[in-house]
Amino acid sequence: MHGSASPLSASVSSWLLVLLCAVSGAYCLRRVRGWGGAAAGEAVMGFGMALMAVPLGGGGEWRTSVLGAVFCAAALHALWLLRGGAHHAHHLVGSLTMVYMAAAAGSGHGHGAGLPLLTGALLLYYAGYVVLGGTRLITAGGSAPGPPGPVTQATHAAHAAPTELIRACRLAMGMGMLAMLLSM
After folding, report:
1. What is the pLDDT of residues 29-54, one digit of tens each?
2. How far apart are CA 156 and CA 70, in angstroms?
3. Cα 144 from chain centroid?
4. Cα–Cα distance between 55 and 71 in angstroms, integer?
5. Cβ neighbours, 10 Å, residue 150
6. How far is Cα 66 from Cα 68, in angstroms, rounded to an integer?
7. Taking the mean position of all CA atoms in its chain, how far away is CA 139?
8. Beta carbons within 10 angstroms of residue 131's beta carbon
9. 134-177, pLDDT tens digit by residue?
10. Beta carbons of 175 and 17 less than 8 angstroms apart
11. Is 108 left (phi over 0), alpha (psi -120 to 50) or beta?
12. What is the DSSP string of 78-97?
């Protein structure tokens, strides 16, 4: 990302972040048919985070403009999802965070281009989100509800896996967001 890391390790970590976000986006895209709007928002967020994490050097004005437009649209979609309940507020925070990071990257001032107080508040939010998501993922292993009828270890594991994968996907994107905020 930045600091004392060598250019090669920074490039490797950036590409690992790209891979993590792209895989999360692909998994969410696969879930869209069965899960609807929230999964679509998560897919857009995953692919957008992957694109934003690509180490292109300057990145270009077009990249900032396109990403800003995509994440503004995602923020509007998240506002629409809020009709279904406040549990969709995280999508709005995520979309607006990506708009903020795209604008900061497009300002041309390099690292530290964001507003320190806002960046700090977002870092605290995502650190809390990651810690909470990690604890939920750890406790999900033994507490996921099983299917009706006779339960074997195999059927319980098959039923619990999608819920745990969803939580792992969200946790991965939260860690990606935290990493991108740390590099601002």
Report:
1. 888 777 666 677 778 888 888 888 88
2. 39
3. 23
4. 19
5. 7
6. 5
7. 21
8. 12
9. 998 888 665 444 444 444 444 444 444 467 777 888 888 899 89
10. no
11. left
12. HHHHGGG-GGGHHHHHHHHH
d(CA 113, CA 166): 33
Residue 155, amino acid:
T
166: nearest Cα among 34, 67, 24 = 24
Instruction: Tell me the residue type at 3.
Output: G
Q: Let me know: does 74 contact 48? Beta carbons within 8 Å.
A: yes
pTM: 0.73
CB neighbours of 90 closer than 8 A, spacing ≥ 6? 129
Q: Is 146 exposed, middle or buried (0-12, 13-18, 19+ CB in 10 A)?
A: middle
Query: For residue 59, is it left (φ>0), alpha (ψ between -120 and 50) or beta?
Result: left
CB within 8 A of 144, min separation 6: which ones? 156, 159, 160, 163, 164
At 109, which amino acid appears?
Answer: H
DSSP code at position 144: P
One-letter amino acid of 131: V
Among 67, 62, 58, 82, which residue's Cα sits nearest to residue 21? Answer: 67
